[in-house]
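User: Please work through this fold.
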Amino acid sequence: MDRARLRQLWDRGQHGWPRSYPVAQFPNAPLLVYLAAWLGRQLSDGDTRTAFDALGRVALACWAYDELRYGVNLFRRGLGAVALVAITVGLAADLG
């Protein structure tokens, strides 16, 4: 598969489904970073695990903010708001 075809598939995935009111789409960059950090966290321990956990939280918070600020519809903006609240509550609980 050539680069042009891969780019076309990526662009199509970014439009979401259904096209008229997208509720699902291929993960964007912050979600891909979060998934990589989650995998790294599962495969490590100690300080490395903590670093992957922090990276994952930051990436997820960036994704949630993007959805809240730039979401294409009310569902996506609401999803971003709920995710930001959940991340904040989880962080507050972890900090004691």
Notes: Residues 38 and 74 are 28 Å apart (CA to CA). The chain has four helices and no strands.
